[in-house]
Write a structure and sequence with these properties.
Layout: H1 5-16, E1 21-26, H2 30-33, H3 38-42, E2 47-51, E3 53-54, E4 57-58, H4 60-67, E5 77-84, H5 95-108, E6 111-116, H6 119-126, E7 141-145, E8 155-159, H7 168-174, H8 182-194, H9 197-217
Parallel strand pairs: 1-2, 1-5, 5-6, 6-7
Antiparallel strand pairs: 3-4, 7-8
Helix pairs in contact: 4-5, 6-9
């Protein structure tokens, strides 16, 4: 368990990269816009390469463009694809889109990191199992957020490819992410997951986003910039 999403994303990416590698992500990715250079810092310099996205989502074509841009030793070698589910714009990667990215990743020997800040919202909106939209679709590591699902703090990092987690505990200790009372961060996850609250909270938040969309569209002249597929605005709108 880790304190926040910045630490989770940054340490997970650092486990996948060497300092001379690069991470391909959308220009809207949280690791690019809101983490103060932490992914580069944690990995000793792995560069973020920004891919053109469609409604916040990378496409195989945009990834391939970056991978094939250069292959000389003077340019950071692409190693990881980082996607967010649901995206920072509230859109969703469908399973066929994830599989297409997986196939390209296999072609170029790339790993796939999923920023799951709103992962529960995606599970609820897609009506798919967590397995279907993670490891079965080629995801190597998932950062699963607790705070946007109702917890006070706490992030879970799940390595589906366990070989990538070698010595990860040492990396977390060195980064100051080993709490003296880690059980107090881990215990709330039991209540969140075992009771189904994580999914109920996400469904409620998605309904709130749908309600807001409907009310906004009743106002003349209002247009939505992006499709409302989950909830990127009201992640904390939980049942009281």
């Amino acid at each position: 368990m880790w304190f926040n999403g910045t630490a989770a994303n940054s340490l997970a990416l650092a486990a996948l990269c060497q300092s001379y590698h690069s991470v391909i992500c959308p220009e809207t990715a949280h690791i690019e816009t809101d983490e103060c250079g932490a992914p580069e810092f944690a990995s000793n310099g792995s560069k973020l390469l920004l891919g053109k996205s469609e409604n916040g989502k990378l496409t195989p074509d945009s990834i391939a463009t970056i991978v094939n841009r250069r292959s000389d030793i003077h340019y950071p070698k692409p190693k990881v694809i980082s996607i967010t589910q649901s995206t920072e714009l509230g859109t969703l990667y469908a399973i066929d889109e994830l599989v297409a990215i997986k196939q390209l990743a296999q072609q170029y020997d790339l790993k796939i990191h999923m920023d799951g800040a709103r992962f529960a919202n995606a599970v609820a909106a897609l009506n798919k199992s967590p397995a279907e939209i993670t490891w079965r679709s080629g995801i190597d590591v998932l950062c699963f957020c607790g705070t946007k699902n109702g917890m006070a703090l706490g992030e879970a990092i799940i390595f589906f490819n366990k070989a990538l987690a070698e010595d990860f505990s040492y990396r977390c200790k060195q980064a100051g992410q080993l709490a003296s009372k880690m059980r107090f961060i881990a215990a709330p996850w039991l209540g969140l997951l075992e009771t189904g609250a994580w999914l109920n909270n996400a469904r409620h938040a998605n309904r709130c986003a749908e309600y807001l969309e409907n009310k906004l569209l009743e106002i003349e002249g209002i247009e939505l910039m992006f499709p409302r597929e989950s909830n990127a605005v009201l992640s904390h709108c939980l049942n009281q």
